[in-house]
Each structure stands twice: as C-alpha cells, then as structure tokens.
C-alpha cells in the first residue's frame, strides 16, 4: 500500500531531519520540499511574488507522484489549513495510507534551533508560522478525523 506522510510544523522544528531519515530508511520513498522548489525556481528561500508558483509546482509534482509506485513525504511547514487540505484532497481514496505528522515546538526553541543552523529564517516567520499552526489546529484535527487520516504529534523539547 502506498504511503504518504505530510509533515507539519514551524521552521526549525525538525521536519527536514525527520524526512531525510525516512528517505534513508525507505528506499522507495521520495521527498517534496518547498524550500528546494523555491531555490530551484527563483534561487531564493522565500519570495512572496513567486510563492503561488511554488505552491502550484508542489501540487503538480505531488499529483504526478501519486501516479507512481513511490511513497511520498512532503517536507514543508503546512501550517495553513487550506494548504494541508489541498494536498489531502488530491489523494485518491483507495490503497493509500496517509499520515500527518505535526511537530509541536515553542517559538523560543524553534528560534534557538534556527540560530544554530545559521538563522535561515527570520524570527517573524517563525512567530507567524506558530500562530497559523495554533489558529488552524482544531480545524486540522477535525478534518483529519473526518478524512480518516492518521495524525501523529511529535513534541520537540530542545
């Protein structure tokens, strides 16, 4: 059965480390990462002018990979409900095991971790992502139950 794992969390919460381990442990798994798409398309980490193109490209790649035998991990923040819903709604309802893994971390710890990795994102982005994740949390949890999607929460303490 095809596996799809969608990661959700603020920057510096451990999503990419987790997804890289999944790839190492699962030779049939491929990864979609919006940061890499941003660099590929515009040689930039984030450019609001091109963000819609990045989202559309991610969805297109995802839909194409759904037609293959590959398992998929989506390594992106996915903190806004509508973006997460768009991905799940694109998944066919048969022979697919879907799991959302949410990385819970305080903004303070995420900012510390971000600094240790070179301060790739601003504190403002971490704060906004954390607020979006908290704001949509109840809606996400209810939607995942309704769609019968497995939901795992990983608590990050340091």
Overview features:
158 residues; alpha/beta; Rossmann fold; 6 helices; 50% helix; globular
Care to describe what's here?
By secondary structure, the chain is of the alpha/beta class. The protein has a single domain, classed as Rossmann fold (3-Layer(aba) Sandwich), CATH 3.40.50.300. It contains six helices and five strands. The chain has helices at residues 15-25, 34-42, 51-66, 81-89, 107-116, 123-146; strands at 2-8, 29-33, 71-75, 96-104, 150-155. Strands 2-3-1-4-5 form a five-stranded parallel sheet, sandwiched between helices. α2 (34-42) packs across α3. The longest helix has 24 residues, at 123-146. It is globular. It starts with a strand and ends with a strand. The model has no long low-confidence stretch (mean pLDDT 93).
Gist of the model:
The protein is an alpha/beta fold and 158 residues long. The protein has six helices and five strands, in the order βαβααβαβααβ.
Strand order of the largest sheet: 2-3-1-4-5
- Estimate the global geometry from the Cα principal axes: globular
- Beta-strand residue fraction: 15-25%
CATH C-level class = Alpha Beta
Counting helices, strands and paired strands, the structural category is alpha/beta
Number of β-strand runs: 5
Q: Write out the CATH superfamily name.
A: P-loop containing nucleotide triphosphate hydrolases
Q: Helicity, in percent?
A: 40-55%
Q: Count the domains.
A: 1
- Rg from Cα: 15 Å
- CATH names the topology as Rossmann fold
Task: Give the N-to-C terminal Cα separation.
Answer: 35 Å
